[in-house]
Amino acid sequence: MRTSPLPEFQAEATLTDTPFPPIEAALRDLAARRGLDLHEGHGRSIWCELPVGEFGAKKRGEGTLLFARAHRAQDLAALQSEIAALSAEAPAWSSGLDAGRFPPNFSLARVHSVTRIGESFVRLRLESEGLERLSHDDSIHFRLVLQPSGTSEPVWPSIGENGQTQWPSGGQALHRPPYTTRAVDLAAGWVDTDIFLHEGGRITDWVLAAKAGERIGLAGPGGSGIPEATRLFLAGDETAYPALARMIEARPDARGHLWLLGKSADYPMPQAEGITTSHLPQDTPALLQALRLIAATQGPFDDSFFWMAAERGAVSQLRGLLLDELGIDSKATHLSAYWSDPHSPAERPARRSGGRVSRPDQSANPSPRSAALATGDDRTGG
Ligand SMILES: Cc1cc2nc3c(=O)[nH]c(=O)nc-3n(C[C@H](O)[C@H](O)[C@H](O)COP(=O)(O)OP(=O)(O)OC[C@H]3O[C@@H](n4cnc5c(N)ncnc54)[C@H](O)[C@@H]3O)c2cc1C
Questions:
Q1: Is 90 exceeded by the pLDDT of residue 215?
Q2: Do 261 and 237 meet the contact criterion of CB atoms below 8 Å apart?
């Protein structure tokens, strides 16, 4: 039975040829696999609740009514994709979104400036409409959306006739890696994101050649937000520095440790009085050692949170140490692979489920499911 108020932004679609039981079963299965919060209404309705809203199904005659409800307009499309993926019959949504237009979580931005802020970092300032959606602390990431090289006629995502977001595919597929919202000025209409320059990176190549006024897409928000615990144990490589900087700035009251992996740590990282910062150029082995020492001397870890993001292999090792070896509650962790090194040893299979352990989602066209997950709490690479 429902006890919480309905989220404001809603869409519905009737499936005339699909009875309720298979959708109900598929939703139960999805909720079990992903550890989602499942609710039921007397055998006639079923839905999953996420921080950003909910999606579910109701018995409607011989057919089924699908629904998606979001607290913010920009999250609705992703929730629609979640429930639609459970049906073989294509739903026609009645969300009031206009076919052919940009999805509400997408906007086109213009390059304002690219400024060197460290040996291997630039700050990209983009101007765009609709930046309010990126200004919240509960979801601090978005995707840069880049055309394939050599495109003369750009094709951007749009709302399809069925009310769902259509992403260009094939030769028109867009590159859309996740980045972190470093700062937003809504009055001036800009957003800053800090880009780690690395060999072979398509965004690296693009940003180093970008001219003022050049266009790029912004999709989001997505991913996780600022942890709320009193004591924070934060760590990451260069790709995570911008997210770590956001956390340090947002939590001047927090106590704890910040470990910066990576060769030089040449980045304008803010300082907080209660957070001890260490640079670990020796990388993951040094971090594992530091965490073992913390575990031996500073437990128990009540009201504490372990937020760590780095290359996938490093995260796998952190997961092994924190969850399996030290027995930290997975709910008190966010361990996220921010990129994958194709040359690193194969990732060790996860031994636990239900924790906030995520994989990088670097594909040019992530599935609707992973896009939607970015609004929940995989939160894919969040
Ligand atoms: C939630 C989230 C937030 C992120 N925020 C940021 C951010 O704020 N700033 C930032 O710089 N990055 C951030 N990243 C990481 C970024 O998305 C990846 O590094 C991404 O691959 C960069 O895209 P690209 O087009 O430059 O490289 P791609 O064209 O996707 O990859 C090309 C090659 O580069 C390699 N590669 C990717 N990343 C690295 C790296 N760090 N070092 C060495 N080789 C690499 C890949 O393995 C691949 O072989 C974030 C990732 C996630 C999941």
A1: yes
A2: yes
Domains of the chain: 9-84 (3.30.310.50), 106-222 (2.40.30.10), 231-355 (3.40.50.80)
Best residue among 284, 311, 357, 362 to mutate for probing ligand 1, ranked by most atoms within 8 Å of CB:
362
Instruction: Judge if the beta carbon of residue 236 lies within 6 A of ligand 1.
Output: no
Regarding the beta carbon of 343 and ligand 1, being less than 6 Å apart is answered no
Q: Whose CA is nearest to atom 37 of ligand 1?
A: 339
- Candidate from 163-172, 278-287, 294-303, 343-352 with smallest mean pLDDT: 343-352
Q: Which two tokens stand for residue 244?
A: 């770590």
Name the residue of 123, 139, 179, 202 to mutate for ligand 1: max ligand atoms within 8 A of Cβ: 179
pLDDT of 366 higher than 80: no
Binding site membership of 141 for ligand 1 (Cβ less than 6 Å): yes
The average pLDDT across 83-110 equals 87
Alpha-carbon gap, residue 205 to 207, rounded angstroms: 6
C-alpha to C-alpha distance for 252 and 249, rounded to whole angstroms: 6
Give the least confident one: 21-25, 62-66, 76-80, 239-243. Answer: 76-80
Tell me how far apart the alpha carbons of residues 354 and 239 are, in angstroms, rounded to a whole number: 25
